[in-house]
Structures are given as structure tokens and as C-alpha cells.
From TrEMBL:
Any GO MF annotation of the entry: DNA binding
Domain of life the protein comes from: Bacteria
Protein name, per record: Uncharacterized HTH-type transcriptional regulator yegW
Residues annotated as domain UbiC transcription regulator-associated: 39-133
Biological process (GO), any one: negative regulation of DNA-templated transcription
PANTHER family per record: MANNOSYL-D-GLYCERATE TRANSPORT/METABOLISM SYSTEM REPRESSOR MNGR-RELATED, MANNOSYL-D-GLYCERATE TRANSPORT_METABOLISM SYSTEM REPRESSOR MNGR-RELATED
Length: 141
């Protein structure tokens, strides 16, 4: 059971090893990068996608904007100490990002540099098998 959950790894000749699991809160006011740094670890990001798209209806409702509005769809693989821990997708109204290439590891840091202070954020977490886009990006990372 613990092996299926990724808590331990078994290897013949080496025994059972407890994996280093990194948990972070989606409810904290600070972002992923700050949480990682505060734990004495090294955050990193591999950007898979930074592009403007037409906002889908479901996302538009969450952002309180019109469906079809221009939004940045930002997709990235998050790392802690060089180990991939999550794939994140962020949707941001296009007018809030003036230079998408200026966003490095932390989206929160970019917003702060632009004097944008998010009033609230919403997160939805799901688990699924990696898609081809993730697999290609991860193998190159």
C-alpha cells in the first residue's frame, strides 16, 4: 500500500526506502516558491506553455470575465530540489501580463513587481496520468 502511494520504494538488494515527500498548501497566502524556500529547498519551474488563448466558458466564470476574452494560459512543471512535484495550469486575463517572458519561477513575484496584489486565488487539484506534452517536457528537463 505505501509503495502504491509513492511513500516507500522497494529495490531488490537495497531494501525499502522512505521517499522524500514534499507537501505544500494551496490555502496559504504565499505561493509555491515562497513555501519551498521557507523549507530550505530549491524551487524551479519548467515552462511548458505561455500563450494567449480565448477564455473558455468555465474559466471565464471563475475569473468573472466574458467567455472568449484573451487570457494567458500558463502551464508549468514545478520542481523541488530538481524533482518534479506538480504540473500547474494558471489562467490570467491578458491585460494583467505586459511581458510574459518576465515571468520566471514565481508568478506571484511577477505580480508583485507590477504592483498587482491578487485579492484571492482559486485552485482545483486533480490527479491523472501525464499527457504527451508533460512527458516530452519532463524528459527534456
Amino acid at each position: 500500500m505505501l509503495e502504491d502511494e509513492g511513500v516507500v520504494t522497494r529495490a531488490q538488494g537495497y531494501g525499502t526506502r522512505v521517499n522524500n515527500i514534499f507537501e505544500y498548501s494551496l490555502k496559504e497566502a504565499r505561493g509555491f516558491t515562497q513555501q519551498v524556500v521557507l523549507r530550505g529547498k530549491k524551487p524551479d519551474t519548467l515552462w511548458v506553455n505561455k500563450r494567449i488563448v480565448k477564455c473558455p466558458e468555465e474559466v471565464a466564470q471563475q475569473l468573472a470575465i466574458a467567455a472568449g476574452s484573451d487570457v494567458f494560459m500558463l502551464k508549468r512543471i514545478r520542481y523541488v530540489d530538481d524533482a518534479a512535484v506538480s504540473l500547474e495550469e494558471s489562467w490570467v486575463p491578458a491585460h494583467l501580463i505586459h511581458d510574459v517572458e518576465a515571468i520566471s519561477v514565481s508568478l506571484y513575484d511577477y505580480f508583485r513587481s507590477q504592483q498587482i496584489l491578487p485579492q484571492r486565488t482559486r485552485s482545483r487539484v486533480s490527479a491523472r496520468m501525464p499527457d504527451a506534452e508533460f512527458s516530452v517536457a519532463y524528459s527534456d528537463g
